[in-house]
Amino acid sequence: PSKTSFVIVMISEAMALYETERLLSGLYQHEIPFSNIIVNQIFPESIDCKFCQSRRNMQLKNLKEIRYLYEDDFNLIEVPLFDTEIRGYEQLKKLGKYLFQ
């Protein structure tokens, strides 16, 4: 293609948010184009696991901050945590539904 763009992939955790801020600074500094930020592995709402619910609550807090910082300026894509590894055509189609909606 005649034009390429960097795609940022992060998780919804405080350290990842800090690392993304540093990455964005470097991309701006070197004039590398980007417009997409993917937030990966978000826990689903209906979880019966106490640990998982605790992680989800933490993610939601960070996701609120991520949305505040990036939602207006970037294409922000939220991808859930899948119960299986993404391997093979069918799993890629499943992932693609989130990436290309």
Automatic annotation (TrEMBL):
Pfam families in the cross-refs: ArsA_ATPase (PF02374)
PANTHER family named in the record: ARSENICAL PUMP-DRIVING ATPASE ARSENITE-TRANSLOCATING ATPASE, ATPASE GET3
InterPro entries: ArsA/GET3_ATPase-like (IPR025723), ATPase_ArsA/GET3 (IPR016300), P-loop_NTPase (IPR027417)
Residues in ArsA/GET3 Anion-transporting ATPase-like domain copies: 1-100
Protein name as it appears in the record: ArsA/GET3 Anion-transporting ATPase-like domain-containing protein
GO MF term set: ATP binding; ATP hydrolysis activity
Family: Belongs to the arsA ATPase family.
